[in-house]
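Researcher: I'd like a structural prediction for the single chain below. Treat it as a standalone chain; there are no partners to consider.
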Amino acid sequence: MGRALALAVVVGTTWAAVASADGGGPWPGLDFGNGIVAPGGKLRYSALSDGRTTVLESVVIGTGRVRGVTYFKGLFGIPRVTFGGDTGGLSRDGQNLVLATWIGAPSTRFLLVDAHTFQIRGRVRLPGRFSFDAISPDGSLMYLIQYLGPPNAIYQPYAVRAFNWNTLKLYPGAIVDRREPDEKMTGMPLARTGSPGGWAYTLYSRVKKPPFVHALDTVHRRAFCVDLSLRHSGNWIASVRLRVHGGMLELRRGGRTIARMDRKTLRVR
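Model: Treating it as a single chain, here is the predicted structure.
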């Protein structure tokens, strides 16, 4: 634990240096502090790095007891999936955890780790700039955001891609809303929630356009974009949170529900 504490001191400097070097794009970055809570709420996984070595540990919530710890060569972190601080990478069955590197040319790396033994189950280096987006309930499919614009562009088009950990290959083509196959995806991810069946719901804001919900079926590799009849001006949208309640996706702000989306019909009221 001495090395982990030393890395915790260094990581603040590392984060600031790498963040300032990154050109932007709708990428929330990596988490080096809060980590991610396992299904059931009993364990928390966190990763720390000094840029050369990454420490991954699991801690029992409530007691602080370290359940497991291991080290990886290189800079890896638990991926953030929204600018609201939501993290991802842990499969709903609690068996698999994805760690990611920082976005950078000419390639991006990911690790698939056994969440219990911390053994590496898979590793991949993809040419281009990718960030983690979601994972299927059994951990076999990973969803990525592929950035298509210049590295320094803050607002740029991107594509949702699916990666198979069993074959270590990307599926060809992007995952798009088949109702609008030519619609370009842009926007900033602000909030995320999921369902037991493997749906990942993300609230996106856009410049001079209404926000929308991206509904991603992580089991069947399909997605829908649902525009919201909410005014887009102002920063209030950043305080909206998502919650699955039965057959509805609720958008909540300040303790009250401001909109509901039927998860089957995708109708919003």
